[in-house]
Amino acid sequence: MNNKNSVLHLRDVLSVSSTGNKLTPTSHSTVQPVALMRLGLFVPTLKRKGGKVESITVDASKELAELEFAQAEGYTDIRITGPRLSMETDFKVWVAIIVSFSRYGASTNTIELPFSQFASFAGYPDKEKTTVLRTRVADALTRLRGTTISLSSKSMTKHTVTGLLQRGQYDVEADTIRLQADESLWELYRIDNQVLLQMIVLRKLANKGSAQALYTFIESLPQKPIPLSFNRIKKRLMLTSPDAQQNRTIKKAIEELQSAGYLDATVTKKDKEWYLIIHSRNPRCKVTDDVDFIRGLTA
Q1: Which of 106, 217, 226, 240 is the 20 to 30 A CA-CA neighbour of 266?
Q2: C-alpha–C-alpha distance, residues 8 and 4, integer Å
Q3: For residues 246-259, average pLDDT
Q4: In whole angstroms, how far apart are CA 43 and each of 33, 214, 265?
Q5: Each residue of 224-234: pLDDT tens digit?
Q6: Looking at residues 233-249, what average pLDDT do you find?
Q7: pLDDT at 183 over 90
Q8: What's the rounded mean pLDDT across residues 78-92?
Q9: Cβ–Cβ contacts within 10 Å for residue 165, how many?
Q10: Nearest Cα to 217, choosing from 62, 24, 67, 44?
């Protein structure tokens, strides 16, 4: 940042859309940096036996090279390291963090709010706000806090470590969530293109982590992307099963996106490699007139 004393706040760095309106996180949509959606930070939960992965490391040097503080300090090696973050829980909590800061972080990077409201921001209905959910959210905050972004210079004379969350605290007695963010994180929203993800799509794909992760990846791409190789999709989804099983997982996720009304695409094979050819996308999954589904979301 040009002014070392300046502090970035999320509201200040959310981009303006082509219609002239700011991209603002709401209960219906979340604004995310394209880089985070392309890097494979939030991925499907591993369900196969022996599929547990303790931690992952993502090389983000290319995607985050434009960060102002990275350029100012000569950082060229940027890596994100931490526990495997799930689409099913960790991404929901991350969405709630973004909404919370967009609502209450106009002049501060430390905020506190009731757990019930935070859970609503994450998309959980009142009937699910149980002790079990409180434990899941607390565990997700631990994983997000444990996800670090490390930056190093080529000569290794300088090194900085920050993270998705500087501090996350759940107070059991007060039943509140307290969050502290690094202002440099918000620079991701300033320098990067942003994607507006529809929560209605993610909710329609509930418990379908691979389809959710593929949705966030596809939405981060240009409107008419080149054919996506399955190899590229595998890297994004961080799949660990045998190759043939990975292909089946991807094909099933594509079918789920098609069934949801989001994706019109063709899967084809060329030179022993599978490709996804995207024809069109419907960001709202054609659920505008699905009264029963919408009632189920708001019940």
Answers
A1: 240
A2: 11
A3: 96
A4: 16, 9, 22
A5: 899 999 999 99
A6: 93
A7: no
A8: 93
A9: 21
A10: 44
What is the 3 state secondary structure string of 30-99? Answer: EEEEHHHHHCCCEECCCCCCCCCCCCEEEECCCCCCCCHHHHHHCEEEEEEEECCEECCCHHHHHHHHHH
Nearest to 260 by CA among 240, 243, 236, 285: 285
Q: Model-level pTM?
A: 0.88
The amino acid sitting at 231 is N
Helix axes 209-219, 243-259, angle to 10 degrees: 70
User: Using one digit for the tens of pLDDT, what is the confidence trace for 138-170?
Assistant: 999 999 999 999 999 887 788 989 889 999 999
Domains in the chain, CATH or no CATH each: 1-192 (no CATH), 205-299 (1.10.10)
| DSSP for residue 137 | H
* Dihedral sign computed on CA atoms, order 287, 292, 295, 299: negative
Beta-ladder partners of 51: none
- Angstrom distance (rounded) from CA 231 to CA 239: 10
pLDDT at 237 over 80: yes
Q: Which residues pair with 270 in a beta bridge?
A: 273
- Rg of the Cα atoms in the chain: 19
Confidence of residue 297 (pLDDT cuts 50, 70, 90): very low
Tell me the pairing of strands 42-43 and 85-86: parallel
Residue in 35, 26, 11, 19 with CA at minimum distance from that of residue 193: 35
C-alpha 114/C-alpha 97 separation (Å) is 13
> What pLDDT is attached to residue 52?
60
What is the rounded end-to-end Cα distance, in angstroms, of the chain? 44
Please tell me what DSSP assigns to residue 28. Answer: S
Q: Poorest-confidence range of 170-174, 233-237, 252-256, 295-299?
A: 295-299
Tokens describing residue 73 = 């300090």
